[in-house]
């Protein structure tokens, strides 16, 4: 056992993280004391290191622009956010778009549509389209992560808006990028997926439009979103890649593309923390670690 | 330092204005809804009386 | 000069706030109007059908 290089590597890795974890937490605390907060340094930190869960929400709020960089404006702006939330909700209730039995995620969707000026007439509301479903999936995941409805709505809205603005143009290229890295890591699996016709049908929208919402449990998901929120959509490719690599044997045994898709849309939920950890390692290996001093 | 004060003020103004913008969208929606409802009431009224 | 910038920022923020408050009052009027109209339509509806 002691000779198992993989095991040795892993335990030394965890030791390192355990030791470094304390140092990292301290350096984040120093960053969070800055006024104004330095968004670039916060992003770099969050790209390089895991966010301690006690600071995660605060970092997300600042990086997503829900709160401004100046800490002494936070109380006032927090008040604005709250007013805006209640104003919109009240109007939707009066116009009968929502009532007390409407699921929160649907309420958030209507609020978002109202703000984006795409709210359909009440009588013309139909089943959610693909884009609405993406929004709802992200909302359901965010709702699992955050208890407060005001924070939850604002973070969903800012996340979705930032994702489209920053990465809208890159998203269509991610499947090609996945194919490229898969050819480097496991050409045999790539060939199998191509030959069976599964490659074209992989759950790209679940992976790259919903950012794994509904695919990974929240504890793993938020570690992926840390990287997305701090400025990388490439991480999504490596999480997808690591899922494929982790279930390689299984996937090589499935010959029908529908079977592949069904499996990938419902991956086992036990192993996902390790998958995300390995995905982040692979991502750092191929894309480098941001080098700015923290 | 002066730049910093300006930046802070600008951010606060934007965040305050965002509430106003939301209110404007709400007003527009309410107006559309009201207009439609009025025209419905007026078409139906003769039958009701 | 710094004081000047701060004063200006404060005034702008106040303007933004009063724009918001004004728009909010409009919204509330319209909402009341809409609620009344809904209840009118619903009371009349059975007679109309």
Automatic annotation (TrEMBL), chain A:
It holds the Pfam family RabGAP-TBC. It comes from the Eukaryota. One of its GO terms (cellular component) is cytosol. Residues 50-232 form the Rab-GAP TBC domain. It is found in: Cytoplasm, Cytosol; Cytoplasmic vesicle; Lysosome membrane. Keywords: Cytoplasm, Cytoplasmic vesicle, GTPase activation, Lysosome, Membrane. GO terms for biological process: negative regulation of TOR signaling. The keyword Ribosomal protein does not apply. One of its GO terms (molecular function) is GTPase activator activity. The keyword S-adenosyl-L-methionine does not apply. Its main location: cytoplasm. PROSITE patterns: TBC_RABGAP (PS50086). Transmembrane segments: none annotated. Non-catalytic component of the TSC-TBC complex, a multiprotein complex that acts as a negative regulator of the canonical mTORC1 complex, an evolutionarily conserved central nutrient sensor that stimulates anabolic reactions and macromolecule biosynthesis to promote cellular biomass generation and growth. The TSC-TBC complex acts as a GTPase-activating protein (GAP) for the small GTPase RHEB, a direct activator of the protein kinase activity of mTORC1. This is TBC1 domain family member 7.
